[in-house]
Write a structure and sequence with these properties.
The complex is a heterodimer of chains A (319) and B (264). Chain A is of the alpha/beta class and 319 residues long. Chain A has helices spanning 2-11, 57-64, 86-89, 108-116, 125-131, 147-159, 177-192, 204-210, 228-233, 249-254, 278-290, 305-313, and strands spanning 19-28, 31-41, 46-50, 72-77, 93-96, 165-169, 196-201, 213-218, 221-226, 238-242, 261-264, 269-273, 296-301. Classes of the chains: A alpha/beta (319), B mainly alpha (264).
Chain lengths: 319, 264
């Protein structure tokens, strides 16, 4: 009987990842942009590739879009090789480039109509414009649009062909909060309707709010990946505060229960890891009072993606 | 974007991927390219206004003494050559250079149109624009009293081979240089070839060592070939030389462009 169970189990198709990257290496001359990155991004979810500028996010995504050749490693998108199966892949994938993509003289409707003509069953242009708040642009050429309008036109161009998967490279870069929310709304709607979304960002809150899966990359390598909840809550809680730099952290640690760790970094920012509770909080403030130290911005709680990045790379994530 | 619209009422974004037939993709892109050429004032100046002004000007005033017959007969073939050069080379190089700069070529390469479809559409768009130019210029030349003779098939072949050569050269330029450098170089080459490249001024008006070199330029081959046919009434066999020159430039530049063209 047991082999029946095994067989049944094996017959259930495990959902294949939408994007599978194995030991990817990308080089520009002697510069290594992506250095052995492996990553699996699930189908039907929003995945965020998060990292500082120059981390290799765009190079990685451009390998998936078929723009770059891998120096080593393997990329599969929807089960296809972007390098050799481009003709089969391109109709299924929508692309929003970080830089440009729309002719400066194009109107929003003109750009969308031209793009729609390449697809078998595109979205109707007018409702998509309305959904993104672009209906009022009329004959305004792309070059005269605001940054937020341009970004939304590029997003509309990426989704007009009803793709199964969209790559959005820094979709909210340089947007005001209102325009950013318009983009986020559309990304959420895409996921709700079953479209797989892969976006790159250097914004922690964007990844934290929008993504089902976050892959943190740095210097061309995967640092860690998982759901934002997994990444931020599977470690002990911590207490953070600001104070003058170079406090005697060892002295503070000895004043606290054993097993408590105190680290400074960057200078003037302190983090206390351990069993965070009222007693520990009182002990920290008592030590500060005894040493005439004014602690400010004191907070406790689970760490943010920012803390995760700092902890794993030793550096701050800054655009 | 003040109130959040009910997205459900606006239709689903659910995936329904698929490409339109290749014919639809290429023809719509061709029309897009033609429209953008016609909407661009500088391109129209280059492709239509300058050839028309030169056609009228040179046929009415004998600023440049070209020969003994009616001036329009000598001027018209060169103006047709100029029209080909302006559209296939200068105008296409400038437009393509800026499309590369603005990421337009890059994005289209990721759509079902693909890079191959884009190059096809660009070539068709050049032919469509040229057809319009030639109709207008030929009608204008007839109104100015042009009486061409010679073999029309030979003339059409020269125009096609000239288009191939100049298109390939235009794309070669646009695929390597920055957009501004392409703009400057395409205009400078246009002007140089217009003045001394054998386009409008016949080779026998140039010093003979210069003429021997210019004969091997695509401009000289096209201009002289068209004059041989439409002015001197020669047939196809007489223009095999110019046709081969144009073919060599076309094949050479295409091979080079295919290897050097940068899409972004």
């Amino acid at each position: 009987m047991s082999w029946h169970v095994l067989l049944d189990f094996r017959l259930v198709p495990s959902p294949e990842p939408a994007v599978l990257i194995e030991a990817l290496v990308v080089r520009y001359g002697s510069k290594v942009a992506v250095d052995g990155l492996s990553l699996a991004l699930p189908s039907g979810a929003v995945s965020a590739v998060l990292g500082p500028n120059g981390a290799g996010k765009t190079s990685t995504v451009e390998c998936c879009e078929g723009y770059r050749k891998a120096a080593a490693g393997r990329v599969r998108v929807l089960g296809l090789d972007p390098g050799t199966d481009g003709a089969a892949l391109r109709p299924q994938v929508g692309v929003m480039l970080q830089e440009g993509g729309v002719a400066p003289a194009s109107t929003a409707a003109g750009a969308l109509r031209a793009m729609a003509s390449f697809y078998r069953d595109p979205l109707p242009v007018a409702p998509l414009l309305e959904r993104l708040g672009l209906s009022g642009l009329g004959r305004t050429p792309f070059r005269r649009m605001s940054g937020g309008e341009k970004q939304r036109v590029k997003l509309a161009v990426a989704v007009i062909g009803r793709p199964a998967l969209v790559f959005l490279d820094e979709p909210t870069a340089g947007l005001d909060p209102q325009a950013r929310h318009a983009v986020w709304d559309l990304v959420r709607q895409l996921r709700e309707d079953g479209v797989t979304v892969v976006l790159t960002t250097h914004l922690m809150d964007e990844a934290e709010r929008l993504a089902d899966v976050v892959a943190i990359v740095d210097e061309g390598r995967l640092v860690v990946s998982g759901s934002p909840q997994q990444l931020t809550s599977d470690s002990a809680q911590s207490l953070r505060f600001q104070a003058p730099p170079r406090l005697d952290t060892e002295s503070l640690a000895t004043a606290l229960p054993t097993g408590t760790r105190v680290v400074e970094g960057p200078a003037g920012s302190y983090r206390v890891d351990g069993d965070i509770g009222p007693a520990l909080l009182a002990a920290v403030t008592a030590w500060c009072a005894a040493h005439d130290v004014m602690a400010t911005s004191l907070s406790s709680g689970s760490r943010s993606l920012e803390d995760v990045f700092l902890e794993l790379t030793g550096r701050e994530l800054r655009p | 974007m003040t109130d959040r619209p009910d997205n459900r009422a606006r239709g689903s974004l659910a995936p329904r991927p698929g490409a339109a037939p290749v014919w639809t993709r290429v023809t719509t892109q061709t029309l897009t390219e033609v429209r953008s050429t016609l909407r661009n004032g500088e391109q129209l100046l280059l492709t239509l206004v300058i050839p028309l002004v030169l056609l009228g000007g040179l046929s009415q005033t004998r600023v440049v003494s070209l020969g003994s017959g009616p001036a329009i007969d000598e001027v018209a073939p060169g103006i047709l050559a100029l029209a080909i050069m302006s559209t296939a080379f200068t105008s296409q190089a400038i437009a393509t250079g800026f499309e590369r700069r603005y990421g337009v070529l890059k994005l289209l390469g990721a759509t079902p149109l693909s890079r191959g479809g884009l190059v096809t559409a660009k070539s068709l768009a050049v032919v469509v624009v040229e057809f319009g130019q030639l109709v207008i210029l030929v009608v204008a030349a007839y109104l100015l009293g042009w009486s061409p003779n010679g073999s029309w098939p030979a003339a059409v072949l020269l125009l096609l081979f000239g288009t191939l050569a100049f298109s390939a050269l235009g794309l070669l330029l646009a695929g390597v240089l920055r957009a501004e450098a392409t703009l400057a170089a395409a205009n400078a080459i246009y002007l140089l070839l217009l003045l001394g490249g054998g386009v409008v001024v016949p080779l026998d008006k140039l010093p003979s060592p210069v003429a021997d070199v210019v004969r091997l330029l695509p401009s000289g081959a096209l201009g002289e070939g068209l004059r041989d046919v439409l002015l001197h009434g020669k047939g196809l066999s007489a223009v095999v030389g110019p046709l081969l020159v144009l073919l060599a430039w076309g094949v050479g530049a295409t091979a080079l462009a295919a290897r050097t063209f940068r899409w972004e």
